[in-house]
Specification:
The complex is a heterotetramer of chains A (185), B (72), C (378) and D (274). Chain A is built from seven helices and six strands; from the N terminus they run βαβββαββααααα. With 185 residues, chain A is of the alpha/beta class. Chain A has one domain: 3-Layer(aba) Sandwich (Pyruvate-ferredoxin Oxidoreductase, domain 3). Chain C is built from 13 helices and 16 strands. In chain C, the strands form three sheets. In chain C, strands 2, 3, 4, 5, 6, 7, 8 and 14 form an eight-stranded mixed β-sheet that branches. Chain A: This is 2-oxoglutarate ferredoxin oxidoreductase subunit gamma. Chain A: Its EC number is 1.2.7.3.
């Protein structure tokens, strides 16, 4: 039975918990089993925020992420806090504002996620959806169709188009030639 | 319409409130219980019943010839 | 409903509404607040009532009042609020008013760590209110089970006219899992029966299961409900014989019907080296640890009480002699351990594996602790 | 046999009541019964909720649906009863300790919600059930077992608190002015919204003895002599009103009632969903 662990890290207010929920729901639409959990500081915004998703073909016994296959870090502090946990065969995706270690054992890719949200899509708060596009495109852990459905189900009414665009921009960013992707699939 | 003053001795605690507020002073406390001294002088005003904390003294209202219940 | 992603707190609300809960009173507290929020959102559409009270004392009071007025009622809270509810939980036990209290446990004591999990309220859920009484406490270990357990909480509270506590924890409360609630099929819902003969109704007479059916206020039976010791009519008394009969009945209606009330799950080997006992979210870590230990050649069984109180001791007595060592794993400094130790009267057989720092057990930790304890043999 | 009101509205087997000789709790309780009788409310639909203390024992004597709750919490229980079944007439019997001290928070929030409950607070300035301790309404410098040298606390004007918290019917009567008290309670019960009636009462045993107030009748006379009708009080100077009890209706206004507002919200939602 295959099981993939994803951790999404950043700061409160970036919508990562919602991103985790969307990812988990997309996996269900794909016919898989998923769980989502989270932790956050006492602040609703500004503190650190972490969402975790496990996607599996069968029942998930232990519901928390121990060794992520995929880590998304939108802030330097999230990168520093969680990079050591990632499996050696895993993948770290960071925003290009994050300074990464040169000698990392784990495959690490940088993308202008926050910038794309702000400048291309036009709203900083869609960075979570851009991130999902990047993750899905790179890892294929969920299908694009299911992810889009899940996004549209969960985002606030009136923001559907904005989020659809954010997702597309994420897909675009994630289209990179890389051996890791084949291994993952 | 006929009214009659009734005392429930078992419930009376002899506090004396009714005695003090009886406008015609026809009540007294004897051996720790209230007593009607003079039925003829009682004007059946019901002030004793109104202020009795123990529901121990009341005016019994009997229906008159026309059968009107004066209690309501 | 088919397969959906659902949060534990949400499953409680779904289960409660399915069970017929039509009154919710509560006060915001992490990590239970989603239960209040969802009740506020959903109850108006099913003919139910939601009210945000001024504190947890009032919330507990309001659900007792609502239950007496005829609605199935629930409140939810976490440690600090659960502490505040205790006096009125005792009132519900004494006056025998059905109601459900959800305690989504967080790290304590006091304000502790509001967003982090713990299982430190095991003893409080049993003995938190003063005086002799019995109570039913249920603890789900998954989102799906939170739904089922909530329905059973209402059923048991109606059947035995007692407050029922659902002892959750932050992990299960906030966890979202893939669930298909349709898999449960039809679940029996126990409704209040109004007896034919209401002329001679005695609200506190032992008719069935140690209780009389509860006729709501306003139905033509005018009786008294009090937290004082009372006779079968509900009227207060200082008669010590009546007091003894009353307290005996309050305890017996639960303890003597234990076999009807207790739920538990057994996994793994039926005999062998190690028997794990755990409940709630911790049993998820224990199950993962069991898989590891199995790989290493140990014979491991798991006993998971779903009903914490009354504790399923009859069943445990049957199982435990076939294992060499018993480990009680819980997110506290040892609480259910004492109950297990009471049941297993074998010197040194029961050990506890504890954690009380706001962190969820990892399977790895459990495996390491077990190996450490048995390194010199069983 | 007992009086028609006792036969009809009391649980006779519970009488005589447990109150001390001359305690005015019986007078105020009977005033509540007279009000209900005058309004001709079906007693199956009346719920009397009380807390803990001398006055709260009244619920046990009354032949309604009665709920004798925990200390200070009667209004919170009553909120659950009323909101669950708004057809019921819910009356709370409470005391100055029960309502003004331990129950203060529930009191102000029920007033704020304007839920249709009538609260009658028997105010005798003392905790009688526990033997005469100072309550929040004990007049300043009066004595109690926990204020052996006189209470230095400022005393609480609960009617003002009720008004400040948003109660839509607020009145004060006394155990001496029974006819007026009955009328005030009647109006409070008839009023749609949160109604508060303070009934100035006497505790001859604890408050009376310790503060040398004389016999029960003397204490009632004191209430008679020191009460001033609100209309008369309006024309008097503050120094003339020093130490006096103002009686009558303080507030009687219409405002949205909680259970009705909830029902309106439900109706609105039904429309919006369709």
């Amino acid at each position: 039975m295959r099981s993939l662990e994803i951790r999404l890290g950043g700061s409160g207010g970036q919508g990562l918990i919602l991103a985790g929920i969307i990812l988990a729901e997309a996996a269900i639409l794909d016919g898989k089993v998923s769980v989502q959990s989270q932790s956050y500081g006492p602040e609703a915004r500004g503190g650190s925020s972490k969402a975790e998703v496990i996607i599996s073909d069968g029942p998930i016994v232990y519901p928390k992420v121990l060794k992520p296959d995929v880590l998304l870090a939108l802030t330097s502090s999230a990168y520093k806090s969680y990079k050591e946990d990632v499996k050696e065969t895993g993948l770290i995706i960071v925003d290009d504002s994050v300074e990464v270690e040169k000698e990392s054992k784990v495959k690490t890719l940088k993308f202008p996620i926050l910038k794309t949200a702000q400048e291309v899509v036009g709203k900083a708060y869609v960075a979570n959806i851009v991130s999902l596009g990047v993750i899905a495109e790179l890892t294929k852990i969920v299908s694009e169709e299911s992810l889009e459905k899940a996004v549209l189900k969960r985002v606030p009414a009136g923001t559907e188009e904005l989020n659809r665009k954010a997702l597309e921009e994420g897909f675009k960013l994630g289209k990179v030639e890389d051996k890791w992707v084949e291994q993952m699939i | 319409m006929e009214k009659k003053l009734v005392i429930i001795e078992d419930w009376c605690k002899g506090c004396g409130i009714c005695v003090e507020f009886c406008p015609v002073r026809v009540l007294e406390i004897k051996d720790g219980k209230v007593r009607l001294i003079d039925e003829d002088r009682c004007i059946k005003c019901g002030l004793c019943e109104m202020r009795c904390p123990d529901f121990a003294i009341y005016l019994e209202v009997k229906k008159d010839v026309e059968g009107v219940n004066a209690g309501k | 409903m088919s397969r959906v992603l659902m949060q534990g707190n949400e499953a409680v609300v779904e289960g409660a509404i399915r069970a017929g809960m039509r009154f919710y009173a509560g006060y915001p507290i992490t990590p239970s607040t989603e239960i209040a929020e969802l009740c506020a959102e959903k109850l108006p559409f099913v003919g139910g009532k939601f009210i945000q009270m001024e504190d947890e004392i009032a919330s507990m009071a309001a659900i007792i009042g609502a239950s007496l007025a005829g609605l199935k009622a629930m409140t939810a809270t976490s440690g600090p609020g659960f502490s505040l509810m205790q006096e009125n939980i005792g009132f519900a036990a004494m006056a025998e008013v059905p109601c459900v209290v959800v305690d989504v446990q967080r790290m304590g004591p006091s304000t502790g760590m509001p967003t982090l999990p713990a299982q430190g309220d095991v003893m409080q859920s049993r003995w938190g209110t003063h005086g002799d009484h019995s109570i039913i406490v249920l603890s789900p270990s998954s989102v799906k089970e939170a739904y089922y357990v909530t329905i059973q909480a209402f059923n048991l509270s109606e059947k035995y006219r007692t407050p029922v506590v659902i002892l959750m924890d932050e992990v299960i409360g906030h966890l979202r899992e893939t669930v298909n609630l349709d898999e449960y099929g039809d679940i029996e819902i126990i409704e209040r029966k109004i007896p034919e003969d209401i002329e001679n109704y005695l609200p506190y007479k032992d008719i069935e299961n140690g209780v009389a059916p509860l006729i709501p206020f306003g139905k033509g039976v005018r009786y008294h409900v009090t937290g004082l010791v009372h006779n079968e009519k509900g009227l207060p008394t200082n008669d010590t014989k009546i007091a003894e009969r009353l307290i005996k009945r309050l305890v017996d209606k639960i303890e003597k019907n234990k076999e009807d009330i207790v739920m538990y799950e057994e996994k793994g080997e039926k005999e062998g080296d190690i028997l794990f006992i755990s409940f709630g979210s911790t049993s998820r870590s224990v199950e993962a640890a069991e898989e590891e230990l199995k790989k290493e050649g140990f014979k491991v069984g798991i006993f998971r009480p779903i009903t914490i109180w009354p504790f399923p001791d009859t069943r445990l007595r049957k199982i435990y002699p076939k294992f060499r060592k018993i480990f009680v794993v819980e997110m506290n400094r040892g609480q259910l351990y004492y109950e297990v130790d009471r049941v297993v009267k074998r010197e040194g057989a029961v050990e506890n594996i504890n954690k009380a720092n706001g962190e969820f057990f990892t399977p790895c930790e459990i495996v390491e602790k077990v190996k450490e304890r048995i390194k010199n043999g069983f | 046999m007992a009086s028609r009101l006792v036969e009809e509205y009391f649980r006779k087997e519970t009488l005589p009541n447990i109150w001390c000789p001359g305690c005015s709790n019986g007078i105020v309780t009977m005033a509540i019964v007279r009000a209900i009788d005058n309004l001709k409310i079906d007693k199956d639909k009346v719920v009397v909720v009380s807390g803990i203390g001398c006055s709260s024992r009244a619920s046990g004597y009354l032949d309604f649906n009665t709920l004798h709750t925990t200390h200070g919490r009667a209004i919170a229980f009553a909120t659950g009863v009323k909101f669950a079944n708004p057809e019921l007439t819910v009356i709370v019997i409470t005391g100055d300790g029960d309502n003004a001290a331990i129950g203060g928070n529930h009191f102000i929030h029920a007033a704020r919600r304007n839920i249709d409950i009538t609260v009658v607070m028997y105010n005798n300035h003392i905790y009688g059930m526990t033997g005469g301790q100072a309550s929040p309404t004990i007049p300043r410098y009066d004595k109690a077992t926990t204020a052996p040298y006189g209470s230095i606390d400022r005393d609480f004007d609960i009617c003002k608190l009720a008004i400040g918290a948003g109660a839509t019917y607020v009145a004060r009567g006394t155990a001496y002015h029974v006819q007026q008290l009955v009328k005030l309670i009647e109006k409070g019960i008839s009023h749609k919204g949160f109604s508060f009636i303070e009934a100035m009462s006497i505790c001859p045993t604890y408050y009376g003895r310790r503060n040398k107030k004389g016999s029960p009748a003397d204490m009632l006379k004191w209430l008679k002599d020191n009460s001033i009708d609100i209309n008369k009080a309006a024309k008097m100077k503050p120094e003339e009103l020093e130490g006096k009890i103002i009686i009558g209706e303080f507030v009687n206004i219409e405002a949205p009632e909680y259970t009705e507002e909830y029902q309106k919200m439900v109706e609105r939602l039904k429309v919006s969903v369709k």
